[in-house]
């Protein structure tokens, strides 16, 4: 493996817009809201940014193609701006662009911004979109919950878990995230819910009920990155650095090679996780990682992701969930900010929103939801696509000296 | 003996839905109480994703059980309800069956006797044809709500393979008359039939014209009515076939049951469907008289041979009827026929535009469900690609065609999706594994909640994928259905 980028890049500043049904805002204003906080946090001005990456996924109801919308909204100084799209990993993908630019020495200071304006579609859920003409002829016409719901049927079958047990574990995931989101003023949904509410909710895609699904919302998040040396020169003392950044994309194996994959896990997450741990020097994630933000687009996704990240033993994720291992006061809190479940999922923004929470927690700036035991290594994880064909992204950040 | 001309094989397809006529009547009795007499039994109703092309494909697959498809020289499609007015409908069927490109294809239409006329033409040409003719008949007639047709009609398709050789039923001759008797009509582009008084149709049409044609045909064939073992008149109006048999001296037990209470009258397909039902039940040495009616009459005579006992098992008419699932959901039936404007929501607005170029390039994969098999590693995949999906082999261009439509499959994952737009929610789909390799994410059709579980046996059926409503183009693909 390549030697990696551990500790080569520091986060200079971050910002996050209030997520929700932002009827009052266009994507441009959401970008500015996240950027304002980030640039103030970084303590620099716009002219110091050398390059920028924009993560955004849905063009139909959004800002259109190219990096121009970001350059225009922030009035960037005619620098290189690249738009990236990698499904729900788009936010982390934009971060990767900025981080790699700094790590390579091509840029001193780079910006990553993710945004999505979903509430202009006219309905709940993600917009229906084409996946290319061949897929439109042969692929299923399904929804995101339908795609991820299939994890559950396979998981039950592979691990011999009853429908009721899995449904209860899934419900616990949602109850936990709502309890956490209730403490977060930037979350879309800030109301705690109980188990019965989740179990008795209307079915969206079997076995995912309404409360097994994350919200759809508008939002933006931003990161400004630089080298540790420049960060220190700019007066930063507590440095959060990037320990690992890995992305893995499906090559068709899961979907096409009969018998090769059983449908109960994410092949790419396992690969990205193994590479990220190697890059960060992590040998026992269950003991070394202190905080996680994972892609909880659906409750079942979070549950199997715990296994794919090698934190829970295969087939035991549902037990860890029910045991409270991932609760805010558990061993490794997961979605301490409320997660996608409560923030909603503005596609391009989510990856950066997760890193934002980890960044705040590491610096002890998370307010009422601040983890009392100081986190040392925090992981964020995104999934784009669907279980059978996806992009998995992992970012591990930690204190520079950790 | 190998110079015999006749029927080599047969098959049928009746869609699974069986709308209970009582439910239709119950909804319409306030308006049309006179329909009460027809409110008995059930009628076959195609699912939302079926049309005359998809039904014909299934009937053809049934007909071709045990037959080397490379043998088929011509495929013809008889119907008055084909989806395309200017695009060879039989051509789509040919592609779905993955028949040789050197196959002739023709649509036969314009009259309710199109199927019998199609058969006569095929049989007459068989003597000089090197390869057999796959004659398919398929019909899905639309009727206005609260009309007699709505209760009487049924959707179905059937097929026969005709040619020379070891036939299961020898063709003994035909007789046709052509008379512009307008019992009903439908103008080009119109949706519904306009029908004249049923008593006049029965007396002048059925009794008069068919009766005369049968008499003339029997005389021409030199066969007494009493010698007929299976007497097929594809009209479901009670007593018509019995009356005609009696007048022609045909024994009452020879009359082939009209399927009026189980399938309904399948229009052009009904003659072929009843012929398939007769062949299914026939022993060697039986004489089968087949009638077609529509602006004249066709009469055909067959005699079964010893070969009929050797045909491999198929779904046939019996299997199709057994596969039926009763439904009382009249509203769903109306919606699926485009007769009820339900609010479909914004998700139904997705543009389904089909680039002709992509369809042309991928026609084998899309229409025929032909995947690829790596000649080096044996890896089977769908769709075929330049580089195999086998992670241990990156050789380029090693794949050969590998048809998957007839390969058994099992469910690996599934869901029932209530969010995505489907005309028949929830939408069932999931990952399926094919026996011997290959897998795909497939939509499921004809599924009940009890049908889906990991490991469940599935088979593939040709169905409508979606309809481009802006440009009026139907897209077809394969779906997984539970093995009955």
What's the SSE blueprint?
The complex is a heterodimer of chains A (402) and B (484).
Chain A: E1 10-16, H1 27-42, E2 51-55, H2 68-74, E3 80-84, H3 90-104, E4 109-116, H4 133-138, H5 144-159, H6 163-181, H7 195-199, E5 203-205, E6 208-209, E7 219-226, H8 228-233, E8 240-249, H9 253-256, H10 267-280, H11 285-288, E9 291-293, H12 299-308, H13 317-322, H14 339-343, H15 347-362, E10 377-386, E11 389-399
Parallel strand pairs in A: 2-3, 2-4, 9-10
Antiparallel strand pairs in A: 1-7, 1-8, 4-7, 5-6, 8-11, 10-11
Helix pairs in contact in A: 1-2, 3-15, 6-12
Chain B: E1 5-13, E2 17-20, H1 21-28, E3 42-45, H2 52-63, E4 74-78, H3 89-96, E5 104-108, H4 114-126, E6 133-139, H5 148-152, E7 156-164, E8 169-178, E9 184-185, E10 194-195, H6 198-221, E11 230-232, H7 240-248, H8 268-281, E12 287-293, E13 296-304, H9 316-322, E14 325-327, H10 330-336, H11 356-361, H12 363-368, E15 370-374, E16 380-381, E17 399-403, E18 409-411, E19 415-417, E20 427-434, E21 439-443, E22 457-468, E23 473-482
Parallel strand pairs in B: 2-14, 4-5, 4-6, 11-12
Antiparallel strand pairs in B: 1-7, 1-8, 2-3, 6-7, 8-13, 9-10, 12-13, 15-16, 15-17, 18-20, 18-22, 19-20, 20-21, 22-23
Descriptive overview:
With 402 residues, chain A is an alpha/beta fold. Chain A has two domains: 10-124 and 218-233, Thiolase/Chalcone synthase (Peroxisomal Thiolase, Chain A, domain 1, 3-Layer(aba) Sandwich), CATH 3.40.47; 143-211 and 243-399, Peroxisomal Thiolase, Chain A, domain 1. Chain A contains 15 helices and eleven strands. Chain A has a nine-stranded mixed sheet, with helices on both faces. In chain A, α2 (68-74) links the parallel β2 (51-55) and β3 (80-84). The radius of gyration of chain A is 19 Å and the shape is globular. The two termini of chain A are 22 Å apart. Chain B has 484 residues and is α+β, with helices and mostly antiparallel strands. Chain B has helices at 21-28, 52-63, 89-96, 114-126, 148-152, 198-221, 240-248, 268-281, 316-322, 330-336, 356-361, 363-368, and strands at 5-13, 17-20, 42-45, 74-78, 104-108, 133-139, 156-164, 169-178, 184-185, 194-195, 230-232, 287-293, 296-304, 325-327, 370-374, 380-381, 399-403, 409-411, 415-417, 427-434, 439-443, 457-468, 473-482. In chain B, the strands form five sheets. Chain B has a nine-stranded mixed sheet, sandwiched between helices. In chain B, strands 18, 19, 20, 21, 22 and 23 form a six-stranded antiparallel sheet that branches. Chain B has a three-stranded mixed sheet with strand order 3-2-14. The mean pLDDT of chain B is 97. At the A-B interface, α4, α5, β5 and α9 of A face β16, β19, β20 and β21 of B. Chain B: One of its GO terms (molecular function) is acyltransferase activity. Chain B: Residues 409-459 form the ChsH2 C-terminal OB-fold domain. Chain B: Keywords: Acyltransferase, Plasmid, Transferase. Chain B: This is Hydroxymethylglutaryl-CoA synthase family protein.
